[in-house]
Design goal:
Rossmann fold; 7 helices; 6 strands; single chain; alpha/beta
């Protein structure tokens, strides 16, 4: 069974999506079966596509492009990962929390304002090694992922009802049955 990861955002240096192919290669080499979906677009898309080819992870990393409604994809994932080098406050992270998904973000200067570490999200070190280690830890510790999910039910995230209304389309339309 594959472990499904989703990342939503602009394909730019700040968002760190160019790190995903190398992270996926590290995890695959360690024996993990990963399927990582990247949703978005931006100036680094060709660079990311080239890195996917270079790392030979085209079966594991899928660029889905921009999606009007990313919520069905988020809903079907086992983990939402935001690999940013720096960030303000990621709306996509909050949306994943609203959908009661375990969330992992990198340690950037404002990361502690995004979530409560160990409560409703996990913070890993920035860079390929830190991200790979964080994902590996969360795969190996499903009880931690479960706790992160349970804690999202205790939080009041802004716009929760609006997001719930959008996801009514269901996972079938996301193509991730």
């Amino acid at each position: 069974m594959e472990f499904r990861i989703v990342t939503v955002g602009r394909f730019s240096y700040a968002k760190g999506m160019d790190l995903v192919p190398s992270v996926c290669r590290k995890l695959t080499d360690r024996g993990y079966r990963i399927r990582w979906y990247l949703i978005g677009y931006g100036p680094e898309q060709e660079k990311i596509s080239e890195e996917i080819r270079k790392q030979s992870v085209a079966d594991q990393v899928k660029i889905l492009g921009p999606k009007e409604n990313p919520y069905p994809y988020m809903r079907m994932c086992d983990l939402y990962v935001q690999p940013s080098r720096y960030e303000g406050k990621s709306v996509a992270v909050t949306e994943a929390q609203i959908l009661h998904k375990p969330v992992m973000i990198t340690r950037y200067p404002t990361s502690s304002g995004q979530l409560e570490e160990g409560k409703d999200g996990y913070i890993c070190e920035t860079g390929t090694d830190g991200i790979a280690e964080g994902i590996q830890y969360l795969i190996d510790h499903p009880e931690i992922r479960d706790r992160l999910v349970q804690n999202t039910f205790l939080r009041d995230y802004d716009q929760a009802e609006a997001v719930r209304a959008l996801i009514q389309q269901g996972p079938e339309k996301a193509g991730l049955k």
